[in-house]
C-alpha cells in the first residue's frame, strides 16, 4: 500500500545548458502517493542560441506565433519511449541542435532536433535535459503546452519493454511536475497525441504533418495513471 511522504529532491548539476543554466528545482512539502524518492540529475543537451532560434522559427511556422522567448506554460505531461535500449544512444540522439539525417519522416517540417525535458534510464534514474519550461520538440501539435518524458526502451519501436523502475520514476516525476506546475491538467502517451486534436491545446497548422506513434502504449500509461489518479489529471479524449 502506498503511503504519503514528503517529496525530496537531490540535484546533481553536470554541465551548463546553453547560455542559461536550468533554474533550481523547488522542493515541495505536499504529500505524494509513491514511496520512491525523487532524484533528478541535470544532464543538459546542447540548447544554445542556434537551437533557441530554430525553436522560435518552429513556433512561428507551425503554431503561427511570434515569440520573444521559448518559455511555455505546461498543461500536458507527455510520456514517450526512445526506441533505443541504451541511455547513451538515447541521449546522443537528443543532444545535437540539428535533426539527425535519419529522421526523414519529420525533416521537412523543421531541421530543429527533437528533444525532451526529461530522460528516464532503464534503472529509473531521471535526467533533466533542459529547462523544464522551455519548449522541446517531442510531439506534433502539442509542444507549446507540454513537458516530455522520454523513457529508454521500446526496442525496435515495436513493444513495451519498459521497466518497473521506469514506471515508478514516471510516477514520482508526474507528481513533482503537477505540484510545481498547477497549470498541468493532462497526462498523455505519445501514441495518444492525435486524440488531442479536438482540444484547444492543439496548435499544429499543417494538416499534412502527422506521424504514427505507438509509444509508450496503453499498459504503461495505465500503470502511471493508476498511481497518480488522485492528482486529477485527464487522459486524452477517446478517438481522434
Structural key phrases:
Lysozyme-like, alpha/beta, 9 strands, 240 residues, disordered N terminus
Helices and strands, with pairings:
Elements: E1 5-6, E2 11-13, E3 31-32, E4 40-42, H1 49-63, E5 76-81, H2 87-94, H3 104-107, E6 118-120, E7 126-128, E8 146-151, H4 164-180, E9 186-189, H5 218-228
Based on helices, strands and strand pairing, what is the structural class?
alpha/beta
Uncertain residue ranges: 1-31
Order of helices and strands: EEEEHEHHEEEHEH
Can you count the beta strands?
Answer: 9
**Total separate domains:** 1
Would you mind describing this structure in some detail?
With 240 residues, the chain is of the alpha/beta class. It has a single domain (5-231), classed as 3-Layer(aba) Sandwich (Lysozyme-like), CATH 3.40.80.10. It is 23% helix and 13% strand. It has a seven-stranded mixed beta sheet with strand order 2-4-7-6-8-5-9, with helices on both faces. Helix 4 (164-180) packs across helix 5 (218-228). The protein is globular and about 45 Å long. The N and C termini lie far apart (36 Å). The model is unreliable at 1-31 (pLDDT under 50).
Short description:
A 7-stranded mixed sheet has the order 2-4-7-6-8-5-9, with helices on both faces. The protein has a two-stranded antiparallel sheet with strand order 1-3. The chain is built from 5 helices and 9 strands; from the N terminus they run ββββαβααβββαβα. The protein is of the alpha/beta class.
